[in-house]
Design brief:
Layout (H helix, E strand, L loop, with lengths): L6 H7 L3 H18 L12 H10 L12
Helix pairs in contact: 2-3
Length: 68
Amino acid sequence: MMLEPSIDELQEKIKSKYTLVTLSARRAREMRYAKDMLIENPKSHKLVGVALEEILAEKLFVKEEDSK
């Protein structure tokens, strides 16, 4: 069974696996209450999967801060 989107594709958008997991879990909790998806017709039926699809579609991202 192949998971979609793949971890390799996702890590092109967000380098850190920890950040990827944290962001998608936080977004899934948000969607649980708000029901507002940033993409149309997601493939996944689960909220974490939808969050990962949003990351792949570049609708959900992490703002990088300058380290000074």
